[in-house]
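This part of the workshop introduces the protein records we will be handling. A record pairs a protein's sequence with a compact description of its fold. Comparing a sequence with its tokens is the quickest way to learn the format. The record below serves as our worked example for the rest of this section:
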Amino acid sequence: MKKLLFAMITVLNIAAVCAAPENKAEIVLDTCRNRGGWSFFNGGEFPGAQGGMKIDSTSNKVMVWFDFTKGGKYVAVSPRTKLPEETVSVDLVLNADRETSINYRIIDKNGRYFQGRSSVLKAGKNKISMSTSGPWSGIWGGKSKAKAPIAPKGIHILMTDAKNKTGKVIIESCVAITKKLPAQRFAGKDSSFSGSGWHFTSKWIPGAAGPILCLDAENSGGGPLNLAISFPEMARNTVQRFVIPAEPARQTFMYAPPLKDGGNINNIYKIKAVFTDKDGNSINRIFALKGSNAVAQTFGNPVNSKDIKSLPFGFCSHFSYGRSGAFAGWRNYEKLIKLASAAGFKWVRDGCRIIKDKNGNYQADPYDLGWMKYAKDNGIDTILVISMSAKEKLPEFLKRVTATVRDTKGLVNVFELGNEPNNFGDWRKSYGGTWNGKEKDNSTSKWVLAHLKYTNAAADLIKKLRSGATVIGTGACAPTNIRYLNAGLTKNVDGLVEHPYGFSLPAEKVPYGLNLAKRDGIAVGDKNNTFAGLIKSYHEHCKRTGKDRSLWLTEFGFSTYWFNGKNEKGMYLGYSEDAQATYLVRRFMEGFTLPVSVACVYDLLDDYSSTQFNAEANFGIIRHDYTPKPSYLAIQRMNSFLNGYKFNKGIQLKIESQPLHRACKRGTLIHDWDKATIASGNEVRAYGFSGEGKNPMLAVWSALPYCREFYDRVCTIRVKGMKQYTSKPVGIDIVTGVSFDIPVKVDGNDLVFENLILKDHPIMIKLFQ
């Protein structure tokens, strides 16, 4: 395994590194910290010379050693970086251990060599300038007879035979002086920050191979620091590690990002630096390097709901009854709606209190009308739940419905009839029956039929009061919803309501499927318990009963609660916050590719003060103290990505390979879910999206259960007929926002992402022409 580089950092001569002659520009050719940036050769035309390169253990700079005791005339080193156009000279700071003879050669674009005149380095530090205009002691080779270099492209630095036959020369700096600064393909912002007794100032300076981070460190009482600088990659990040000693008090060092093939101008590289002191305290900084063709929208920068025309993503809230006690946090609805709007949500799902005035007339609570208006003003539409109770007589219920529809005109156009009648509203208690509506003889429970009567009456009334309104309902579990259809759901119910909680399953799975038909008495879903199969099954059942209704997923979510030895028997699993973010994005993204009208995460804010061992208290994507969980930021990024996009079946994706190590393959997820076995999905998911005037993009992830045990998996994806998108693509981790370059090749008319590496999170691949 290649050793990590731990290096002492020495003071650089700032005048030599950061100052150019008047009316000229200085460009760093190499930071001189990595011998991979240099070539060495031993003057083979004069046999006998020995030598080589290594990193000096004290200065952490490239050191050249030579030995002419057995013959030879010279050894030479050359920076691998091409000289910038219009280079006037190459200036170096060289530190020789003894007096040493030196020379140089300039190579131009025609391959012609121009050798300078010898000079002598004194023992110690020397500043030397090697002019590209001579004078020359020799000229040869190439495709021309030019007497002066034409567009110099390279330089050889020669240590030559002299009175000292052996020696060492450390190259402390190597810069090109040019007539003008070339157009910059990348840009970064300068900054300053402090911590652990140190003050740091960062500055991006021009480099021939790309910008270089120049970091000045000033000690004001701190101890030594370890520094790790991480460059984002598709696979393992490239990390350079350093040791910053406590002395001297002021130190400067340079970091050259490893921009492969000149870097990707479509990308914004988020380079992470972590400074850690002896006590484990750390300073974390992100140095962003932006390509000249990079646009903020590409990377999921937040887009406010008001600036998003349409997206089928929403959140559940408790604004209506959350005003005190366990739900008191919801009272600050302005703050929460602002947070939701900043995340790009287009829908909120909640209820409305209907109160009686002194004359016994029903009217909507002004408080609820207030939050609805505030949501609308912030670009968010409301799905309004009209509560339904078996204890309320049908005529009184319809009076409430009338008041709700009347008083919310201009604020609400989607009405949801009831909420999980198998759990709420006393329907089972009042009429009897099972949770899924199946009796022993497979007849439908009485509570379902009673609830259906109220649903049909309310839907018919709403359409009379406001014909353009959208009415959605049922809202029980999947097999019960199909029973509503079979029992005669009115056609005035435009859409069915489904709450596809996975409970303890990954995002692509639900605890419904053909393997549970015996339990439910209704065949719903598919044989693999997939979320996609459930959606398809709904539409098939709707068509069989006379109307292909829309489908509204008004609740789903993943709780981040903890087990404590007493709460392990429930249906819900406690997910890590990172797993919650991953699964929410995977579920939202898959739903975006399916015939789903709206999907709402349950819920925006943790209830019950985020009590750690309570499942119901941890479904939020924002904690009770209003700080965002990773899921909030991930959904915010996802909404930005998909703004203006739609799923495009016309983008033909073929997963050509998706190998898995035998230890990575998952079999059974749950051995006994109501006497049925639910198996894992081991596949890779890939979908294409397009938008008017926008470049297409791909969403790719592994459908394996979230796992941090293994680093990654690999797949190869072919995108048919899109050879025109040959500019370097960018991959973005939807959960973290970190972007990285992704290699792609053209095969005929297709793009091929060969050995694409997938880690824990879904990635978005941006394509460019």
